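Re: beginner question about structure tokens

> Can someone show what the tokenized structure looks like for a real chain? I only ever see the sequence side.

Sure, here's an example I had lying around. Input first:
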Amino acid sequence: MGVSDLLLFLASGRKTGLLKCSHAKVVKGIYFENGIIVGSSTNDPGEYLGQVLIHYGKITEAQLQEAMEIQRGEVQSSTSDIQRRFSKSQPATKRLGQILVDQGLLINAEVAKILEIRTVDIIYDLFVWKEGHFEFSLEDPLPPDFTRVDVEPQRVIMEGVYRADELARFRTLIPSDRAVMELGTGWTSSLGMGKETRELFYFLEKRMSVAEICYNMHSSSFEVYAQLYDLIQKGVARVAGELPETPDPLSEMPNLPEAAADLLLLAREELNNKQPDKAIAIIHTLLKHEPQNAAARTLLLEAEKKFIAHVYSEIPKTGVPKILLSPKELADKGIGPQDGFVLSRINGDWDIQSVLSICPFREADTLLMIKGLWDKGIIGF
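And the corresponding structure tokens:
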């Protein structure tokens, strides 16, 4: 079923429960009550509250990092390991929004408004997925600590279809996230610009790719594409080229088997050989062809857990990474958009945990990039 048909089916049937949609590593949840959308969830760090607050200019990356530091401190001090083991109820960790309110950076009304916007935006993104998997459960009500919304599915469908159509139109001028953007001949410093547009011009002057602009603006691809498309039509910006696709990490492992069972066996062997990063790459290859392979998904969680533990055995969470190469040397390394974003947040002051807290990527993915930069001699500790 298409996303529109699926939402209409649940709305017309006045269903109550959780619609779970998954694609690659991303899992989103949409909560229904009597056919009305009342909330949503996501495991995509780019859609977490902190990233959305930065995008709307409510906080800075430094303020998010500080708030996350406070939250981590509460987790560590809230209860001991022995208490966790024997206590049936663990103390609740204070939510990020409340920490920011306590710090005087936001008021409760601002947090509630952003949470409502975020709830609907999580759903809109489904309309630009080319494929995915869904399941509906009648036994999962909206968690009590979620911000409740009351949204008619028809409203979401209309906006979602509009965004999908518009994104297709934007791609007629901007071919992909790898497109490198620059200022066009129609640019002039006399143009009236708000804060967000000035920020976008800064990235255009640096000739960043669309993906890099999205990461740095902590914004959805739809919003960035819309802004860039408008600037291109006005002659203010233009596409200067396209970055090459990121090399497949399995290119160093020729003659891989094609059968899913054989790939799983090979991934398990790599795990047993204490090579969890290779195991992760193999499992991702399998999941590209069989996204709902339950055994592969289970093994991926195990591999990521072991990889994270392996990285932290070599690099402490409090380790402070430093860039070892000059800007000119970095330019010759062919660093991809995601690696480039992580690298730009390595400032010689923030430790690993701080870098993780402001990156719009999953912990395992960010650590894969950090380890890759370390192995290549680009960063050190």
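Each token stands for a local structural state, so reading them left to right follows the chain. Confidence is low (pLDDT under 50) at residues 84-91.
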